[in-house]
Design a protein that fits this description.
The chain has 470 residues and is α/β, with parallel strands linked by helices. It is 44% helix and 19% strand.
Length: 470
């Protein structure tokens, strides 16, 4: 009987002691006041459960781990990149300067780029590059299916490994399969190093489930790079006529900027496996190939938090004439929405191209509930015809292009690990603008929103509440 009394006393004392470290930690580390106040409130209202939840979900262990890596690793080649540094003049000069300070990467001249649409046109070029690899192949993909397309990539990677090329493959721990990852098993069986990003079945690591590596990177011999929105799977080959075909846009880049792309992969690989990729096979001395200034911009819930979003916000602020967006999912937060609408209010022509129907209906419902304020501000919203287009493109004033893996939603801008490429080139901007304009078929109006049945409007508003988690 006495033991139960003593236990109850300890329990009562704990109700007042346990929330204290949570409160102190939240005050020091939570910059968002709403999140800080919320965690403190939960820990005091339900000390044991609330504190346990904070321990699991409230502490950004990814940031702490990234800081530790930054102290331990110095990537090669930074001094070589100085001679390719490019200075931008004109209206967008503040954007280039800001992103340089934010990313600590120079804007680099001497690059070339080719634009490819859909897996039909892109996959053969990527596989050919792997087949011609001499020293290294590094590949990162959110989705890497073990289907007819994945088999072709796997065969090329295995053959490269067999002939002595250094091959490293990184797939996401959720996107490429949580309980089973067939492509990893296929590659490892043949000796190809393949890792799964932030994958764990242990409860104390479950918070990492919400933090995904959404990047798509392929670098061959440290000199040829591919990046964009294209995953690896049969659904991206339109000629195969799968159930839900996916159109997309991908980019082939050459020049000094490929070094930045390779370092982005090396960081993720070291973060996942602890292995440091260095030396000539992975990071050879860069050389000029073209004349386009470019820079890689990464973001994630680590030391790169919100960097892609900040770049977009700065571009929106500096825009003078027009802004074009093409995105598969359009669910920006209130801050991002306000900047878009303010740009429209001052006379900037803003076109937002989204699919009539994406591959995630719930996201469509939430998106549809959020579109009216953009129309009120004067933005033009276009609903693209099928097939579902997964491209992520932004063009400002027919001069600056921002492309890559980032969707315009809270998940991509705040939670996912993403990679984008900024390019200052009128020719490329014109090409991408024409592509975006070719999908401006069905303009959304206030009348279209008003005639949605009341029940469906309520449904959409309900799903809008879950916007940060979609």
């Amino acid at each position: 009987m006495m033991s139960w009394v003593i236990l109850k006393e300890f329990f009562d004392i704990g109700r007042w002691v346990v929330p204290i470290p949570v409160t102190l930690h939240a005050l020091r580390h939570k910059r968002n006041t709403a999140a800080c106040a919320g965690w403190i409130g939960v820990s005091w209202m339900s000390p044991y459960i609330g504190s346990a939840l904070y321990l699991m979900f409230g502490i950004n262990r990814v940031y702490r781990r990234a800081r530790k890596m930054a102290d331990q690793h110095t990537w090669e080649g930074r001094e070589l990149l100085v001679k390719y540094r490019q200075v931008i003049e004109g209206n967008l000069a503040p954007l280039a300067k800001m992103l340089g300070r934010l990313t600590e990467r120079p804007l680099m001249r001497g690059n070339s780029v080719k634009v490819f649409h859909d897996g039909d046109n892109t996959y053969p070029i990527m596989i050919e590059a792997i087949q011609n690899a001499q020293s290294s192949v590094v590949l990162c993909s959110y989705i890497f299916r073990d289907d007819v397309v994945g088999e072709d990539f796997a065969e090329a990677l295995i053959n490269a490994h067999t002939r002595g090329v250094e091959v490293r493959v990184l797939v996401d721990g959720i996107g490429s399969g949580y309980f089973r990852c067939p492509i990893q098993r296929r590659l490892r069986k043949k000796g190809v190093p393949c890792a799964r990003f932030m994958h764990s079945i242990w409860p104390w690591k479950m918070p990492f489930i919400n933090l995904r590596n959404h990047r798509k990177i392929l670098v061959v011999d440290g000199r040829v790079g591919f990046m964009g929105g294209l995953n690896i799977g049969a659904e991206n080959v339109l000629s195969l006529k799968t159930k839900i075909p996916v159109a997309d846009t991908h980019f082939l880049v050459k020049g000094p900027v490929v070094h930045q792309l390779a370092v982005a992969f090396a960081w993720d690989w070291s973060f996942t496996t602890g292995e440091t990729l260095k030396g000539t096979p992975y990071l050879p001395e860069p050389g000029p190939v073209g004349d386009i200034p470019m820079r890689v911009v990464t973001s994630g819930p680590d030391m790169d938090l919100e960097k892609i979003e900040y770049g977009m916000l700065q571009a929106l602020t500096l825009a003078k004439k027009n802004i074009r967006f093409m995105t598969p999912y359009f669910l920006p937060d209130e801050r991002f929405s306000s900047v878009i609408n303010l740009a429209a209010a001052r006379g900037v022509v803003i076109d937002i191209v989204v699919p009539q129907r994406s591959n995630h209906r719930i996201i469509d419902y939430a998106r549809d509930a959020s579109l009216r304020p953009y129309l009120d501000a004067g933005c033009r919203i276009w609903m693209a015809d099928p097939p579902f287009n997964h491209s992520k493109l932004m063009v400002v004033d027919d001069e600056w292009s921002f492309v890559g893996s980032t969707n315009l939603d809270v998940r991509s801008l705040r939670l996912n690990f993403e990679v984008n490429l900024e390019m200052y080139d009128i020719g490329l901007a014109t090409e991408l603008s024409k592509f975006i304009d070719s999908h401006k078929k069905n303009r959304l109006t206030h009348h279209d929103i008003d005639r949605i049945p009341f029940v469906l409007q309520v449904r959409n508003e309900v799903f809008r509440l879950f916007m940060p988690y979609l």
